């Protein structure tokens, strides 16, 4: 549910406007199984909604739901232009297509490396590697302070969908000495570097080569890099790849429309898959988090109309288990194993079959040393992740770290201060409003 606000001279700039699924409105109820959950939840935008005339624009850094998913439901509260790159713009257009506001929203497509003035903010888009195309970091400058906003990122020199990570872009910021670096903390508890998507492709190839029957892979629907990796592996192992699940089909279509899908990689129609020999079949299915109505859930239950899994087939979880989803995943895995289906999880696989899109400690350390901001501001994680990020920053030579919470204001000029609970925050149910597509 990312929603960040940068303020200067009575003007505001929003960075990201995300949603989450199946969540309670009270964050304290996240681990309470009896708490009421809502289908789609967003951050409460009341603070900026009450200052709508001061909102200069909205920037979306990339196309993951926790960064773009709430815009169809919330845009009418803001009514300002949206700035983003081509792939994310296409994702957003498709979300808006069936809403009443589709013709009202101004989407400004920005090129990586471009610099735009949005109100009093000068914004530079910096291409950065993540797990889907066109992800961008931002360098936001005002006359009194500047911020390097990483958004979601990792160091990946073989990222599959984009150009390799470019350290020079970030080393160049050091001479400007940014006031602050607002940095992704998701993997800050993990040592070393994040695994490259290219290494994941090799691990999947080696895993496929040991399977003799039908293979089903489940992964996050938005992970275009993984889809391309799987299509390459299918071609190398003589399998026809098909997609089961609307979000996968949509992302494949967007990747083709925006030029990110290699023309030589073909996708078989799902209706054909039941007529092929088992050893020639690769199914990529939604449902990696145990969702019973997703494609893998139907396959596990034996209710999918296009395919029925049998003993000797293999299901590969090319994804991590998101905390809170352990029980539905365990239930699904048990059902698959009862059918005689072999299950390979990323946590216990002999090969690397999943790569996170977020930075580990060595990624963080390198970036802090390259950019050398005056202040480190860890975000995007729970308290222990942000504290770990701050520790890495301190060890990398960043003298000041500000670790806050939702609703805190980080003042960068004329003096530095962390103002606790300056803004009322919370969550709102947007289930009945124009929906983000899961």
UniProtKB/TrEMBL annotation:
Keywords: Exonuclease, Hydrolase, Metal-binding, Nuclease, RNA-binding, Zinc. GO terms for molecular function: exonuclease activity; metal ion binding; RNA binding. Residues 1-204 form the Metallo-beta-lactamase domain. Its EC number is 3.1.-.-. It comes from the Bacteria. This is Ribonuclease J.
């Amino acid at each position: 549910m990312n929603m960040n606000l940068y303020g200067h001279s009575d003007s505001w700039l929003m960075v990201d406007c995300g949603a989450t699924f199946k969540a309670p409105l009270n964050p304290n109820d996240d681990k309470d199984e009896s708490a009421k959950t809502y289908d789609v939840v967003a951050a409460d935008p009341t603070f900026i909604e009450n200052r709508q005339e001061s909102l200069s624009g909205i920037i979306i850094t990339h196309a993951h739901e926790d960064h773009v998913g709430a815009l169809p439901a919330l845009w009418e509260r803001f009514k300002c232009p949206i700035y983003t790159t081509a792939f994310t713009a296409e994702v957003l257009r498709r979300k808006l297509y069936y809403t009443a506001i589709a013709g009202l929203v101004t989407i400004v497509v920005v090129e990586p490396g471009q610099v735009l003035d949005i109100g009093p903010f000068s914004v530079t888009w910096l291409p950065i590697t993540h797990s889907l195309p066109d992800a961008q970091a931002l360098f936001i400058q005002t006359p009194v302070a500047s911020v390097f906003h990483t958004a979601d990122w990792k160091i990946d020199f073989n990222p599959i969908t984009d150009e390799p990570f470019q350290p020079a872009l970030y080393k160049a910021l050091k001479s400007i000495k940014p006031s602050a670096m607002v940095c992704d903390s998701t993997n800050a508890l993990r040592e070393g570097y994040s695994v490259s998507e290219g290494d994941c492709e090799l691990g999947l190839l080696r895993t496929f080569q040991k399977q003799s029957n039908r293979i089903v892979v489940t992964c996050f629907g938005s992970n275009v890099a993984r889809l391309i990796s799987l299509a390459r592996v299918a071609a190398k192992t003589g399998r026809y790849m098909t997609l089961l699940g609307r979000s996968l089909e949509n992302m494949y279509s967007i990747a083709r429309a925006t030029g990110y899908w290699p023309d030589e990689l073909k996708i078989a129609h799902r209706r054909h898959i039941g007529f092929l020999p088992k050893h020639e079949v690769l199914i990529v299915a939604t449902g990696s988090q145990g969702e019973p109505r997703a494609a893998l859930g139907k396959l596990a239950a034996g209710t999918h109309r296009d395919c029925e899994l049998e003993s000797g087939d293999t299901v590969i979880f090319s994804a991590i288990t998101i905390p809170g989803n352990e029980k539905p995943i365990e239930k699904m895995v048990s059902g698959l194993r009862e059918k005689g289906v072999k299950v390979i999880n990323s946590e216990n696989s002999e090969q690397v079959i999943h790569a996170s899109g977020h930075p580990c400690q060595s990624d963080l350390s390198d970036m802090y040393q390259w950019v050398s901001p005056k202040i480190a501001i860890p975000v995007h994680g729970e308290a222990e992740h942000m504290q770990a990020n701050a520790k890495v920053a301190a060890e990398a030579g960043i003298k000041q770290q500000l670790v806050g919470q939702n609703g805190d204001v980080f003042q960068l000029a004329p003096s530095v201060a962390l103002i606790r609970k300056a803004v009322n925050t919370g969550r709102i149910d947007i289930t009945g409003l124009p929906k983000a597509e899961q």
